[in-house]
Design a protein that fits this description.
The chain has 471 residues and is of the alpha+beta class. Helices cover 49% and strands 17% of the residues. It has 7 helices and 14 strands. The longest helix has 51 residues.
């Protein structure tokens, strides 16, 4: 895969392309404007010089006709001299410097454009035609009719073109100089503004499982965009660090809880193999080993269940089917009823006659209520009762599980849903995964589970789940 250019290179390339386009436009506009102004000045000069040539026509002191006074003409240019022709309207040529190869326009000039362009020996010329000009000599005989003149005048435009080219070169050179200065300034600004980004990248590269801190510049010295990026990276690192810590704690707790059943099974089997024993002793040892294996299987099953739930929370899956809340609560009560009878604890349901439809898997909901009810029964004293109640609350439904046990201390309430977390008054035999599994399922379906603080004895856990919307 071809490696892309750096951001700085692409920004500079964009600046260069835009500045080149701007410079080309400015050069074209400058040359066009300068050429237009030079053409206007040149045409105005042509008109003045044509009138000057017409003013050199005189009446003779004696006789008829017209004379052309050449003594007042300016000295001719060494290259590409000016050309003129003066003739009377009768067709008599009074003065002429046009070569025979040049064809002069005949008749009255156009009202809009009396100019024409031609070449003489390869040199560009521009001419002007004036028809019916009066003779400006004041010595005209009063009895004679005033004579009229047709005057043609042309001058080389080579100097004008050279001036236009010089102006274009000056404009182009200035634009290129400004372009170079702009690129240098842009490169300096980009280097300065991107320096914090490079620093942030190097700081991010130094992050490791032993170093989760992102040493960023103070917020007041950062741009708004870089500050937003830094804050997003810091929040992401905080979540990753928390997840990393949870994984480490999970592995440590799992190893701790697996160690005891494995040690029991190992010691039991070693004891059976130390010497020959009676059949009853072998059966008793095998049953003890089987009990340890069963606890291992239960622990592994719950760990796998919790891992699957967390994976489902991170992935986007199809919408689950509809499930009836009350039916899942009644099924959970039936599953927990043998444990409740054995501990002389009554199970009560409240609000289970109402139908609440949830977008969730029925088995997952039943597992939540089973874990909450089992936990409540294990903490309840003999002769007490455990209640599960359902109550609608707008677009959601609230499920509470209340027992009459010793309650949850305030300092332990924020941690009761953590994996392998067991309270100070926890009965023996549990793994500390039931509430963690319940929280994972509830959160997977967009709900919330929490401990409700209350002054009276006992503990109350509340679950809020969204009701299914009609489609």
């Amino acid at each position: 895969m071809k490696r892309r250019r750096s951001l700085r290179f692409r920004l500079l390339a964009g600046v260069l392309a835009s500045q080149l386009l701007l410079a080309a436009g400015l050069v074209w506009a400058g040359i066009a404007f300068t050429r237009r102004q030079l053409e206007r000045a040149f045409d105005a000069g042509l008109q003045g010089r044509l009138m000057s040539v017409a003013a050199l026509v005189r009446y003779p002191e004696s006789g008829s006709g017209l004379l052309f006074d050449t003594s007042l003409l300016p000295p001719p240019r060494r290259r590409h001299p000016a050309l003129y022709q003066v003739r009377s309207q009768a067709g008599t040529v009074i003065a002429n410097t046009f070569p025979p190869s040049v064809v002069l326009p005949e008749g009255a000039p156009g009202a809009r454009n009396p100019y024409w362009n031609f070449r003489v020996h390869g040199a560009p010329y521009r001419g002007l035609q004036a028809v019916g000009l009066p003779v400006m000599d004041s010595e005209e005989a009063s009895s004679a009719a005033a004579a009229k003149l047709d005057v043609y005048y042309a001058a080389s435009t080579e100097d004008m073109q050279e001036e236009a080219a010089a102006a274009g070169f000056a404009i182009g050179a200035t634009s290129l100089g400004l372009l170079l200065a702009t690129l240098l300034l842009a490169a300096w600004i980009m280097r300065r503004e991107l320096a914090p980004l490079r620093t942030l990248a190097s700081d991010a590269a130094a992050i490791s499982p032993r170093n989760w801190r992102l040493e960023a510049a103070p917020a007041q010295s950062q741009s708004a965009e870089l500050q937003a990026l830094t804050e997003a990276l810091q929040r992401m690192l905080a979540r990753l660090h928390e997840s990393h810590q949870q994984q480490r704690a999970f592995l440590a707790d799992a190893a701790h809880h697996l160690k005891t059943p494995v040690a029991v099974v190992k010691s039991t089997l070693q004891a059976l193999l130390q010497r020959p024993r009676e059949r009853a002793e072998y059966v008793e040892g095998a049953q003890a080993a089987l009990h340890g294996v069963e606890r291992l299987a239960q622990l592994l099953q719950r760990m796998l269940r919790l891992a699957r739930l967390e994976q489902e929370m991170e992935s986007e899956s199809a919408a689950p089917p509809l499930a009836e809340l009350a039916a899942s609560c009644r099924a959970a009560m039936e599953r927990v009823q043998p444990l409740a009878r054995a501990r002389n604890v009554a199970l009560r349901g409240n609000g289970l006659d109402r139908g609440y439809a949830l977008r969730a898997d029925a088995d997952d909901l039943e597992l939540v209520w089973v874990n909450l009810l089992e936990n409540a029964v294990l903490y309840s004293p003999a002769g007490s009762a455990v209640e599960i109640a359902c109550q609608g609350a707008g677009a959601s439904v609230q499920i509470t599980v209340r027992d009459q046990g010793p309650g949850i201390p305030a300092d332990e309430a924020p941690h009761v849903f953590e994996r392998f977390r067991r309270g100070s008054a926890s009965p023996s035999g549990g793994f500390g995964l039931g509430l963690a599994i319940a929280r994972a399922i509830v959160q997977a379906y967009g709900g919330v589970i929490a401990v409700v603080p209350q002054p009276q004895p006992g503990a109350t856990l509340r679950v809020v789940l969204p009701l299914a919307t009609a489609t």
